[in-house]
Each structure stands twice: as structure tokens, then as C-alpha cells.
Amino acid sequence: MLAAIVLSLAQSVTPAEVSYALTYRDSRAGLVSVRIDLPPASRGSRILVIPRAIPMGYGEQPFDRFVSSVSASSSDGSRLAVESAEGPRWLLGAPDSIVARIEYEVDIARMEQEVLAASDTSKARPGYLSLLGYSVLGYVEGLEESPVRLDLEVPETWPLLTTLAPRLPLPLGRDSASAENFYALADSQIVAGPELEVRALAQRSAEAAKQVKGLIGESMEGVIDGSRLVDEAAETIAHVAQSVKGVAQLIGEIAAASGEQSTGVDEINRALAQLERVTQQNAALVEQAAAAALAFEEEAANLTRAVGAFKTDRGEARERAIAFVKKGIAHLRGRDREAAFADFERRGGNFIDGDYYLWVCDVNGIVRCNGSNPKSRNQNHADLKDADGKLFIREVLRIAGERGKGWVDYQWRNPLSKQVEPKSTYFERTEDLIVLCGIYRIDNASAPRVLPAPHHATPLLR
């Protein structure tokens, strides 16, 4: 009896699985069929949503315009009513019906023709298929966080690869995979075709290592070139000094020649012409010195950026912070922003875990939400300084504008140790927002970390 009660409680807590089936049979037609089987539920209509947000992008793409033949059925196979709703949504069934299955088709060939950005579209060509999860897979409102099973079917002789469960050798014709929720499914990719090949991970790692080595070599060459330019600048200055001495000698010759004006007019003219040439040479040497100094400054900045891109300390904590930020960005897709901000600040929710929490600002540094201190909303943090006076938020805004994501290091007071410690914050830009999550670079994992309740004496950031 007790075991049955425990099993019933576990089933009520664990979300039921949503099953997706994706089929591609005729490469000439360019159509992909999608079937969604829903877990048992109480009576009521459902809403199907085709996301428009592009992951890691700054805009939207109405992928719903390539969706057709949307249908819904109950568990006994009977057809249910389907009607278009506001935005990329379809209303399925009636208040007294139970929706068990949803089916629709996506025209990949038309999508590739009408979406101009090649990186934002799936592709279907004779003998080749490449699908971006967010462009073909929709979700049912209320089931976004449910675990997902994905079954794939392509022509039986085609090798098949999904980034949710890559494996070697590649399976032929069919494959299946699981995902934590719809957001992980939407971020996946599917590739198939008779000529598909996948290189071993070790080979890709070796190539990546060679690329890193090459970047380091290029940086060292830049430093050497900069040093050479400095030496050339020193030589240029020496030439200028010598030229000045030559000018002084020429002026003396002009003074002597003026006493013999009746016989030395031609010599004076030659001296003036030589003086003009020397002056032009001096101007050219000064320009060369300025160009050498500017090139050295640029090479030094490139070396700093190349070295700063490698973060090797606290790898597991950094990966968790990156995953937290990506989860937050996925949560923003297809939702009202204020609702998402409220989710980020809800204690006991999915976006506050110990001292891991999210905070969001816009591209001007205005705080939109803060999982540690909700009272800091609408405050301008652009000029916030760390313990050493560093304007680290300015650095976040700059990097987000240039590269879209990155890390920033600064000194901040740790609420656990009560000491100023080095801290790293990972951030990514999505549209006009920047989502951030930070870690302390000194591992204090042996001691419990509890977020204190925010109050006026609490710092704005942790």
C-alpha cells in the first residue's frame, strides 16, 4: 500500500513525456511531417505554438507561414476542430474534448527560398536534409518544460545524425533521442543524406588545437612586428635629428652666400631647393613614426583580446553559468517579457539555485530584473564600479555590442566569505537585452551558500 502511494506521488511530480515524430520520405517534395503525441490530460482545448524567435539572434522569423495541414485528434482517432489564433498559434479542440495527437507539415523547400539568411533556415534538397529544430518544431502551451522523446525517419539508406544524441557509426533511416524539455529540442539540429560523414571527435579536437596554436603563433608574430616597428620609429627619429643638423648647415651656407650675392645667386637657389627636399623628407618620416606607433597599439590590443578569450579556471562552474544563461534566453522566447522577468526573480523557481541566479539589463545598462535583488529594477548600472574602481558593466555592454556574448572579470564582495574576491560573469545578448550569471573564481563549494533576502543595505549585484 505504501509503495503504491509513493509511486503515485512520484508520477504526480514527474512531468509526463511529450512524443515528437518527424518524417521525411520524399526529397523531391521538400515537405517534413511532424506528429506530436500528448500525455493523458483532462478535458479542454490546447494551443499549438510555432516559435518565431531565433536562438542567439537579435530578431524574429515567422516560421509559422511555412506550416500547413494542421490537424488534431482524440485518443480514439476522431478529428477535432482546428482554427487559427493570434500570432503563430492554432486553437485545437473544444472545452469538452481531450486532444491526444497533433499533426502538421512544414514546407522546407519554400522556407529556404523565402528566408534570406542562410543560417536561419532549414534546407531540403535531393539527397540532403538539414533541419534547425526551432524552424520546424512547435510546442503545446503549458508543456514546454515536459521531457521530450524524438523519433526520426528518413529514407532507409540515408545516414542520420541528431545533435541530441550523436553516435558513430551513423544509424540508417531511423533514430531516436531524448531532450530535457522543448527548449533543448528547439536548439537541436538534424542532418541526413547518402553522402553524410562525421569525423571522429578526437580529430576535430586535434584540428581545434592546431587552430589555437596558430592563433597564438599569429599573436606572437604580431608582438615581434610591433617591436620591429618601434625600432624603426627610433631610427626615424634619429634621421630627423640628423636632418635638423643638415638644415642648420644649409642656413649657414645661405648666410655666407648672401655676402657674395653678385657671384653666388645660383648656389643660393640650389641650397633652397635642397632645404625644401629635406623638409618634405622630415614630414614623411614623422608620418611613418605615427603609423608605426598606431600599428603597435593595434597589435597589443589584438593580443590582449586573444589571451582574454581563454577561461580555464572553475570549468564546471563556468559551464553551469553558461547553461543558466542559455536556459533564461530560451525562457524569453515566445513569452511576455514581464512574465519571464517575474519567473527569473521567483524564489523557489527554476531560475534561482543557490548562488546561481540571473539578472537582465538592456543595452544601456538599465536593470530589467534581478534574481538576487528585485528592488534594483529600472536602476542604471552602466557606471557601476567594482572594488578596484573598474567600470565592468561598461565592459559588458561593449563586448555584448561587438561579439554578442563573453565573460567579464572583476573584484566583488562575496556575501558568504565577507571578503572581496575575484568574480567572473557570463553574458549573452538577445535582441535589446543582456542576460547575465556570475560565479566566484575561488571555489567555496564546501560551505553552504544561501541568497539573503534583499534589503536596502544589500549590494545591487552579488
Placed side by side, the strands forming the largest sheet appear as: 5-4-8-2-1-12-14
Strand content: 15-25%
Main sheet record: 7 strands, mixed
CATH architecture of the largest domain, please?
Answer: Sandwich
The first-to-last residue Cα distance is 48 Å
Helical stretch count?
9
Instruction: Please state the CA-atom Rg, rounded to the nearest Å.
Output: 33 Å
Assign a percent range to the helix content.
25-40%
Overall pLDDT confidence: 81
**Could you say how many structural domains there are in total?**
3
CATH top-level class of the largest domain: Mainly Beta
Name the shape in a single word.
Answer: elongated
Structural class: alpha+beta
Index terms:
462 residues; alpha+beta; Immunoglobulin-like; Beta-Lactamase; 7-stranded mixed beta sheet; 9 helices; 37% helix; disordered N terminus; disordered C terminus
Secondary structure layout plus pairing:
Blueprint: H1 2-13, E1 18-23, E2 31-37, E3 46-49, E4 67-73, E5 79-80, E6 82-84, E7 89-92, E8 101-107, H2 108-114, E9 123-125, E10 128-132, H3 133-136, E11 139-140, E12 148-153, E13 160-162, E14 174-179, H4 182-186, E15 189-192, H5 201-258, H6 261-308, H7 315-332, H8 337-345, E16 352-353, E17 356-357, E18 359-362, E19 367-370, H9 392-403, E20 405-413, E21 420-430, E22 433-440
Parallel strand pairs: 1-12
Antiparallel strand pairs: 1-2, 2-8, 3-7, 3-11, 4-5, 4-8, 6-7, 9-10, 10-15, 12-14, 13-15, 16-17, 18-19, 18-22, 20-21, 21-22
Helix pairs in contact: 5-6
